[in-house]
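@channel sequence for tomorrow's demo:
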Amino acid sequence: MSVDREHILDNFFVSGHTACSGCGQSMAARIVMNVAGKNTMVTNATGCLEVFSTKAPETSWGVPWVHSLFENAAAVGSGVEAALKHLGKLDSIRVISQGGDGGTADIGLQALSGMIERGHDVLYVCYDNEAYMNTGIQRSGLTPFDAKTTTSPIGKKSTGNPKQKKPLVEICAAHHIPYAASASVGYPQDVEKKVKKALSIRGSKFLMIHVPCPLGWGSDPALTIEIARLAVQSGLYPIVEYENGQLSNRMKLAAVKPVKDYLVTQNRFKHLLKNEEELAKVQKIADNNISYYGLK
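structure tokens (generated this afternoon):
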């Protein structure tokens, strides 16, 4: 649908796009944009979010929005920020660059590192659905251990993705930027709080939001929020904050769920349910997260 100018007074990422039913990314994008508000400029890497929200001549964006290449949303955001600074408008306009896990943790990592190393006053948001969903559900650097994708298939010699998730929040925090954090669409109020906090800080900021993908994960679209919460509650997706390179906060777990409760909700992990050895490996990853981040 085309943007209704009256409607976007309250919603800066509007309905009518072509995202799949239950898409966690579309939910998270709406939260981010409605917190950021109208005085925002966005650069968006190629990916699901770009494709389903900007089917020409229609758009779901109620703010100035630029489609970058797969790899350079952060670089384009750096240029937008520099131009606003030159024009003396950076105090009144915020810049958000964003992309999926592939366009951020892999293809776009160099541009992201350059942006935050130079200290551009930009918030980068990574919508982490844990694979290259737009191009065929291939594994990315943020695909979980043992997950089935089209490039990490299961078989006699494979139990899925052989690598653990790249520690992207820690990589960004290691640049000693003012703010780097993770969040989950399963906890929308926490996402809102972190977007507000990030935009109140001058300098480079990074926020990674876990967003279930029913198509790529083989999950029930009606259970997106529940599944997102199970990832956090099992310890597989720690919710943390870093300020100036130091861990400053984490979401404590009142009751820890076994990883099996999370894995059973998705076809990409179905092969693990009868493989006790691999299941134990995934449980150990969660246990190590809980211990390392002090989640209990």
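heads up for whoever presents: Strands lie at 40-44, 65-67, 94-100, 123-128, 154-155, 158-159, 179-184, 205-210, 240-243, 246-250.
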